[in-house]
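ingest -> validate -> predict -> emit
validate: passed (alphabet ok, no gaps, 527 aa)
predict: started
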Amino acid sequence: MQAVRKGALREGAFAVSLLGGAPPSCGILKELIACKPCPREMKKPTVFVSQGQALPGWGSRPQRLARPAADSCGTSVLPGSDRSAYGCRVETRPGPEACDTDSVDHCAAEMAAELSSQIAEETTRIREILESGIPEIRSDARLRQLLWDSVKGNLNAILHTLQFDIHAERVEAPSAALEYARRLAQNDIPVNSLVRAYRLGQTAFFDQALVLITRRALAPELKLTVAHRIFTVVSGYIDWISQQVIGAYEEERSRWQDSSSGMRAVRVREILAATEDSPAPSDLGLGYGLDQYHLALILWSPEHRADDLALGELERAAHSIAEHLGAVRPPLFVAVDRLSAWTWIPLGERVQVDRPSIARKVTGRGDRLSVAAGRPASGHRGFRTSHEQAKVAQHVAMLHKPHPRRVTFHEEPGLAVADLLAKDLDGTRAWVLETLGPLAADSESAARSRETLRAYLNCGSSHKAAAASLNLHYNTVKYRVRKAEQELGAAVADNRLAIELAVLACHWLGRAVLSPGATFPEERALP
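emit:
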């Protein structure tokens, strides 16, 4: 190929702009079109001809020309025999005729297969990009998991479309993507957040595709044609699926607002969003007074339950708990989505509730209902505060693996600290491993040692009190503490605060901060 001049970068940028995206970096363009450094001075502008376009090396925008013929090498040339008729030097580039369809499809399918082998990592990467660019979609733990499922479903569909040459119109939107759109509608998150998520995801996917293209030893024209092929397929898919998910969003939004539950949810959200300076209403207008003590609960069911059954069970459970606590009136029940609900139990003038009885009531059920509770609080501010505390408790409960905690109270010792540690799980996991060493392992023996240490520290480093709380013999607790200190390589008293916090994080966050198979080759011994 003849040396490519300064106009090559413009040609690459123009070609990429035709694909609907911002021009990539100069490094990527050089890979795509194999450009070489240009001289500082050019006596005449260079014109490239590709796909019937005259592409100036500098100056005015490209102008459409008649579609050129191709020579025997598949190189497109300007019509006419005088190539300098435009008053400038003309260099020719191989057009798309040189890249047969089979080669392009084969390359695109190979790259789709490569991305399919990295589907989990790519899904996580795109979800992080979406959550960073759209803050309103990252507040709820269940929405975040559903977003991951939605991204994975869309990625699988796109990659299959590329691999097997499936027309976008024949592809159904992934069920997780449709359900995610409905949940956004139920949570009063605007539809433009949904649209932006698909656009940001499209850009993130194409960025990764360009990286894969530049790594391959392909002819420059083939690289550009493959990029065009991938972008065309992805754009067509996004356009088609966007129509389906937006339709699902709007349908659910209309249904939700038309229902009495939806109207109640709108009113409650208005109260929760009110600022401290807003006038405090004494009544929600829904038969629930604010001038009393409230206990806020969040109830949710496992994902596999049928929608109507789950909501019905949640409401019955809320009324059952309220009756068990002797509520002065029926609870305020607000469906958040099809599998979770907010509830406020009216306590009148009572400030305390029997937490153990609530736990027994919930765990005694035959289902997997989970409940997170705030602290009883009064008035308009207490209505909001107790709910925010319940959300914190739910956040911690949802992080506990493999199953969420069944009953979680915000006032339980250490929960608020665990919520702070959960804001940086990677950092917390590394710190727990550094602090606890082998005791940070995800194993039964390490878990037994951690729980013994937690009881020992909670009881003021008393072996006798810890034995009573664990229902163990005094010597058993003493032996376990001594063995744990050997694993730690130091006495507990030497680093009490760090060890207590690390053990607390393991207790509340479980596998989210544990290190599978954490071991140390050297023998840890007390000094």
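The CA atoms of residues 322 and 345 lie 6 Å apart.
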